[in-house]
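User: Hi! Is it possible to get a structure for several chains at once, not just one? Here's what I have:
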Amino acid sequence: MRAGRWLADHVVMGAAMLVLLYMFLPIFFVVLMSFNDPTSRLSYEFDGFTMANWTDPCGPSGMCGSVVTSLQIGFLATVGATLLGTLVAFALVRHRFRGRAATSLLIFLPMATPEVVMGSSLLALFTSAGLSGSLGFWSILVAHIMFCLSFVVVTVKARLAGLDQSLEQAAMDLYANEWQAFWRITFPLVFPGIMAAALLSFSLSFDDFIVTNFNHGNTITFPMFVWGSAQRGIPPQVNVIGTVMFMIALLLVLGSGVVRRRRPAAA
Amino acid sequence: MSVFQAAVEAEGSLGPEPAPPSRRRPRAGYWLLLPGMLWLVIFFVLPTIQLIATSLYDPNGSLDTGYAMTWSFSNYWHALQQFQSPFLRSLLYAGVATGLAVLLAYPLAYSIAFKAGRWKNFMLVLVIAPFFTSFLVRTLAWKSILSDNGFVVSALQALHILGPDGRLLATSVAVVTGLTYNFLPFMVLPLYASLEKIDLRLIEAGKDLYANGFTSFRKITLPLSMPGLVAGTLLTFIPAAGDYINAELLGTPRQYMIGNVIDSLFLVQLDYPAAAACSVVLMLAIVVMVLFYVRRAGTEELL
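Assistant: Yes, the chains can be modeled jointly so their relative placement is included. Here is the combined structure:
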């Protein structure tokens, strides 16, 4: 019986480790391929070691430009979606009004709609409005704010709903007015949720291919660049960008953990 | 760890609504809602209506000459007839990928929630980290992993699971592997969030009543993790059914899913009515399946 218990415990943990390995396998390959010296443009195998991709990351024409475009759109979409979404989350958690059910449904629907449907419906709208010739930066941005919005609302709402409102009431008992209570108590407590929502928005926007593909006009984002070059032969520098993105994300997440540990009192 | 802890909590919060708010001034609430809701109405609701309208346009029109609204419901009939197999393939691949994701995600989420101890946050970082490297770049990496001279194919050939000419790339196995991989975090996080909330005293109580490990899993842990399981399957199945990146990069036209068809009809063949009809059918199929599934799973508060 006891041996069975030990086995069950370790089998589950072992399985978990194998799954983590499966999740990391492509990352190992992205890093490995960033040092690849491919013999042909269409090769997906490791042909030889070189540092050239790292010393000349912007070698392939248009690639770094597409990264910059993606960063710009990602940044603006994050600001837009986080702002709009946070306001909605506050309305949902802190205010009573008619039409709550309809509002919640409207927020849920974009998350439950496949991207291909969202992308194609936006294209149908833009085309019928006679805008199909002027698609580009702005149409990508509008679309990204749209699909990030719901995720922001859900993320900030979760944080807000878990907040103890008596803290605010206590502040008001101590003669804080509503604004002071908001800026000095509520906002700092909700801030981690807003930051999480912003990070999520940025990664959703930076990584989006499908919706962008329907509405990009002549603007090329990084995923569009990768997609286009997959047909013609992928430059190994794409893996350099992938590796750098992975390292930045890891540093950000680990960094936020370190800061938290230094300030154990913060919620 | 707060930043992504909040994200994890949020994944689980597709669930029950928070308690009704205690305060005040409905008008302020409307002003807070207005900009966001307007955005969703203009860029989500209106496009959906336009998509449905487009699916009923006269199929004989073209982008240059314009389309007439003729309420051509026959577009749907043609779409279903002509693209039956990509439709069925999408639902099949997404279904298999979701099933595999449950099998892979459960032990991982379970270990993080109950067995990781002080490594819990670290393991959560490990789950989320791969997610930040571009989706497309990771999918291309699978091309290297599954390539004909790669170690996976060699190993399977050595074990005689795969014939000497057998391959993985450009098969449905590769497409499903990619789909499962790409949407796995969407399964792990909600599952973890609902497992984490389980009161361990319930499991102890089960033990006191002579339940063995398997029984207490079946009767306590599994039912209590249902909200996470339902949220996870939806978050995996819906995007997987609409995805066409995996089929395009890891498969061949024989593995094409409905997303590939919609993309090509809209952007290459410029046949808007047929493309819109396919999009609407996909949307309806998903709505119907989700409603049916959520009702069966008995977690209606999710919607």
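Confidence is low (pLDDT under 50) at residues 263-267 of chain A. Chain A is about 75% helix and 0% strand.

User: Great, thank you!
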